[in-house]
Amino acid sequence: MELKNIVLPNNRTRVRWGWLKKTLMAIGASVIVCSMLLFMTPWGNDLRTNLAEMVINTQHREWAWLLVGAEKRDDMVNKMQKQIDVWGVDKQHDGLIKLDKRKRTASELIKVVDIQDEIHKIPTWRGKKMYVYDPRTIRLVTTSHKQEGEKITDMVKRTGALAGVNGGAFDDPQGLGNGFAPIGFLMSGGKVILTEYDGSVKQHVVGFTKNGILKIGLYSIDELIKDGVTDAAFWKPRIIEDGKGLITSGDGGAGRDPRTALCQTGNGTIIFLVIDGRQPGHSMGATLKEVQDIFLSEGCMNAGFLDGGASSELVADGKLQTKPASRYGERRLPDGFLVLADPSSYKPDNMWEGLTKIDAGGAYDNPGFQQEQAKLHGKVEHSSSPPKPNATHKPQAGKGTDQPSATTPRTSSPSPTPTKGKSTAKPTPSSSPNEDRTSSVKK
């Protein structure tokens, strides 16, 4: 019998196809099991909700529908905003703060310590805590650049400050803004540098009186002036009022993110907390409730948040002490709260005075983005001058940006005519400080 022309099956081929089938079946089974866990169990529902909260508080909030659906996403956003407004309504009792007015040297004014999550076996977050023992040394410092924000490290160096953190909200197109379009208002040295709204309109406030009392909550500019507030900016939410935590259930509804927060204890000491986030292996960020618990353990009477996300940072000893989540490093910002040994030495800058249009920037004038694109396309930049704004829409004041940003999802930019003092532009019917101008965290 002739056998030489018969081709026998290749055992290696059969083994290879058998392994591939088993792998595909295992993957398919895993997908089915994971889907059932995520969509058919309370644990999975909680996980999807927590992830959606984190997405909602970034510039990509529209993608949260993939986790919970569009209807629930919108419901979550509305509930979060309403709750934040409720937390800010009641007026705090300033008489509960008994300020320690003893004189201190520059070296005695602040103390910076490391802090990390001590609840979980593997810490979920890390950051810095800064004590400021005389709140009267804190000033809101604004950018010294025309049409551009300024890095906090540069602000600290320019003013000779002992330390500083990022400040209030700003319009941030696609997370690539130039830091020159503040949202809400700015007060520094007793002057209203810029405001979007009439002096009688209540806005979310973080600020300090001339006597060093921290004010947090919903206040109008007229009320701030009456109460002696000298330095303030727009941000939210308040989480402690008169020594009582306002988050009584859940984690605060904003997921884990980088945070910048502050509080005042009964003796007047200010505690700034800056927590890194969005960095697996280093720090994922903290929840609102975790920050509240830290402040309550310190005996804080009133507490709230400043801008967060990629803007969160703390500078001390002339150096950046934290690790910002921004992919391009330290960001340009419109303002920051700085600690000065001689606060009277700082004279507020008003780079917005006389402007009829505020450009929030974008990809076209973001140095980090431009350098990244040049490398990707194999181009070498021979000029340090910023590219001309011909590739990206240039937002005008009052017009907003094409895409939702981290600080201002689908919102307008500051008023067409930024004004100082009490003569301020009134909000349009479609624009209100109680709208979701900013998320409870940012970028």
Automatic annotation (TrEMBL):
Regions of compositional bias (Basic and acidic residues) in chain numbering: 434-443
Family matches, as InterPro entries: NAGPA (IPR018711)
Location of the region described as Disordered in the Swiss-Prot/TrEMBL record: 363-443
Biased composition annotated in UniProt, kind: Low complexity: 404-433
Membrane-crossing residue ranges in chain numbering: 24-44
All copies of domain Phosphodiester glycosidase, residue ranges: 160-339
Keywords, ordered alphabetically: Membrane, Transmembrane, Transmembrane helix
Pfam families: NAGPA
Protein name as catalogued: Phosphodiester glycosidase domain-containing protein
Originating species: Paenibacillus ferrarius
